[in-house]
Amino acid sequence: MQQKSKVVLVGVATFVLLIWALITIIPLYWMIIGSFQDSAASASFNPRFIPDSWSIAPYERFFNKTNAFRWLFNSLFVSGVLTVTNVFLASLAGYAFAKLKFPGNKSVFWILLSTMMIPSQVTLIPLYVLIINIFSLGDTYTAIILPSLVTVGNIFLMKQYMSSLPTSLIHAARIDACSEFGIFYKIILPIAKPGLAVLAIFTFVAQWNEFFWPLLVTRSSSMRTIQVGLASFKFAESTDYGAIMAGATVGALPMIILFFALQKYFLQGITVGAVKG
Amino acid sequence: MARVVFNNVRKEFVDEKKGTFTAVENSEFVIEDKEFVVFVGPSGCGKTTSLRMIAGLERQTSGDIIIGDRIVNDLHPKDRDIAMVFQDYALYPHMTIRENLSFGLKNLKKSKAEIEQQVKQASSILGLDELLERKPRELSGGQRQRVAVGRAIVRNPQVFLFDEPLSNLDAKLRIQMRVELAELHKRLGATIVYVTHDQVEAMTLGERIVVMSNGIIQQIAPPTELYNKPNNMFVAGFIGSPAMNFMDATIENGKAFVEGAQIALPQAVADGLKSYEGKKIIVGIRPEHLYGEEFAHTVSKEHTMDVTVQVIENLGADNLLYFKVGSRMVTARVHPETIARLGERKRLVIDISKLHFFDPETTQRIALS
Ligand SMILES: Nc1ncnc2c1ncn2[C@@H]1O[C@H](COP(=O)(O)OP(=O)(O)O)[C@@H](O)[C@H]1O
Ligand SMILES: [Mg+2]
Question: pLDDT tens digit string along B70-79?
């Protein structure tokens, strides 16, 4: 009896997930297919579900008419820098909050955490004023990067993760004459690798897809990230859907590759913090 | 020359829930150079905290700690000339066994040749030669345990600190490692402070044993003295297995009256208990000092008690008889061929020379001069 109901359950679950997967994949499929159709078909934006002809013309138009390579570089640069700073600073702070005794450990952590309760829209204008008007950083990489050097959410995540690492390793290293920074660098970072990898990937993806802030603080086309660039391109060439699809594909491609290359870590990301290390 | 001395050491923790909480109270002891001392007590009694204070991983709230000739109160762990073996081994999981062993020496900026030499020596003592290039996760529990000991040995410290090093091993391996540790102590000639909650481990390993309960040292003594002259009812009940029996008694005319028996006490004992004449007292007797009547060859059959047997456990080498005296359950460990039936009366012989007496108010041993 039990065996039978289990089979039914698995069947239903598979069916639901299949539908869900289809719903998720169809827009992606549409985007990719659309980007390979010639301009006539694209102009009406009525691409065939199974195209009868393939063309890379939309890609040529996209790359010729825009600063696409620069945008891609900008995105890569900004996301890369922010990934490094977030991983390093969040793990450093998380480790300190989780494992080190210092006066005000708890209160500082709670103050930090409470800032997560403030919606980002509230701080957006003051932040804008600070970066653009007071620091005069408009239209620079610094303006895009500075506010996100390390996020409180990431510090929190790392604190939770670091708490799960055995304290006796830290004690052992201390007795083994390792310096405090050495303990972090030689013991904690290596054993926290799975957690750091998850943090790195999620940060990179989030930053790659970031739209609003880079839009606010950049003006010139050469400073735009790919997401902001795509948006501006859309406004200018509102009819060339093929090229837009090509651009969107180019913008999404790194994430798709990243996902398949690091699938293992994405799955881990869901359980990080839940499992004891 | 490395004694370890605690002078009135106290450790408080400030806990959110419990408030200020004293984990170790007025701890005083002298561990002599090259001595093997075991701290024993139930979980949470402050053993690990004591060990961590020696190591310098926790700072005592007050009092002085001396290692060798130095007051080490504010000395960093690396400067205390100690090494520690942790309960969970705490091997660095991303390093090979060789790297684990040499990590501390590298940090101390020792020469390559010296590191090589030390690692080689430790690994041959502990039989780790084949494992040096492996990672900890590729080792069995017993092998990891050896590596943890090895990591302490290579430092060549004055004092070794062990925190329940055998508690994660299965019973058979634990006995084997216990023997190895005793041999190691002879070979290294270093001071060893060893923490365990297992009284058998304590009795077999320790030259002296420190019994702790609730952060307070109850007694410091060699194993036989702990067994023969426990300071108080806690130590008496903690050391020895099955635990010592306690019976409520009254002293009258040099006799101890317990339910079911009337024990005439030897003159010296009766004299010692004079001040308790007519008062309540607690009599302690270990299960192995009660005999079935027919097997009481080694003791006089003068003193007996009649009991109703409630439970019989056959351990092979011995039988355990359980019965009630007053409201307390009492155990006798008797010869396996002793005739006893459930629910029937049985006459037991008491080895009168092995009685212990405790004050019911203070639970302290009554000294019989
Ligand atoms: N860092 C700490 N903070 C608060 N309380 C602690 C801390 N370390 C130990 N304690 C408390 O001190 C008491 C003694 O702990 P411990 O020395 O680890 O006992 P054990 O004898 O089992 O090794 C326990 O009640 C424990 O909860
Ligand atoms: Mg402990």
Answer: 999 999 999 9
* CATH code, domain carrying A93: 1.10.3720.10
CA distance B162 to A251: 57
Residue A207 lies in a domain: yes
Mutation target vs A (from B107, B115, B145; most A CBs, 10 A cutoff):
B107
Q: Indicate which residue's Cα is closest to atom 7 of ligand 1.
A: B13
Residue B208 alpha carbon to ligand 1 centre in Å? 23
Q: For residue B44, what are its two tokens?
A: 């949470």
- Report which of B47, B18, B367, B4 is spatially closest to residue B218, judged by C-alpha positions: B47
Average pLDDT, chain A: 87
Q: Does B90 touch chain A (CB under 8 A)?
A: yes
CB of B247 closer than 8 Å to CB of B328: yes
The full 3-state SS of chain A, as one line of letters, equals: CHHHHHHHHHHHHHHHHHHHHHHHHHHHHHHHHHHCCCHHHHHCCCCCCCCCCCCCHHHHHHHHHCCHHHHHHHHHHHHHHHHHHHHHHHHHHHHHHHHCCCCCHHHHHHHHHHHHHCCHHHHHHHHHHHHHHHCCCCCCHHHHHHHHCCCHHHHHHHHHHHHCCCHHHHHHHHHCCCCHHHHHHHHHHHHCHHHHHHHHHHHHHHHHCCCHHHHHHCCCHHHCCHHHHHHHHHHHCCCCHHHHHHHHHHHHHHHHHHHHHCHHHHHHHHHCCCCCC
How much of chain B is helix, strand and coil, in % rounded to 5?
30, 35, 35
What 3-state DSSP class applies to B99?
Answer: helix
CATH architecture of B4-238: 3-Layer(aba) Sandwich (3.40)
Query: What is the pairing mode between strands B159-163 and B191-196?
Result: parallel
**Which residues are CB-neighbours of A150 under 8 A, at least 6 positions away?**
A85, A86, A89, A90, A93
Look at residue A248 and tell me if it is in a domain: no
Specify if A48 maps to a domain.
Answer: no
Q: What is the pLDDT of residue B226?
A: 96
In chain B, where the domains are located: 4-238, 245-358
pLDDT tens sequence across A159-207: 999 999 999 999 999 999 999 999 999 999 999 988 898 899 889 999 9
Q: What percent of chain A has pLDDT over 70?
A: 90
pTM (predicted TM-score)? 0.85
Please state the φ and ψ torsions of residue A114, each to the nearest 5 degrees.
-65, -25
* pLDDT tens digits along A43-89: 556 666 777 778 888 898 889 888 899 999 999 999 999 999 999 99
pLDDT at A263 over 70: yes
Is CATH 3.40.50.2000 the right assignment for the domain spanning B245-358? no
In short, whether B44's Cβ falls inside 6 Å of ligand 1 is: yes
Domain that holds residue A114: 66-233
Task: Give the count of domains, chain A.
Answer: 1
Per-residue confidence (pLDDT) for residue A234, from 0 to 100? 65
From B16, B49, B52, B59, mutation site for ligand 1 pocket: most ligand atoms within 8 A of C-beta: B49
> CA B238 to CA B363: how far, in whole Å?
14
What is the reported pLDDT for A2?
A: 66
**Parts of chain B with a pLDDT under 70:** 1, 369
Residue A41: pLDDT over 80: no
- Mutation for A interface: B52, B88, B100, B108, most A CBs within 10 A: B88
| CB atoms A175 and B57 under 8 Å | yes
What's the pLDDT at B192? 96
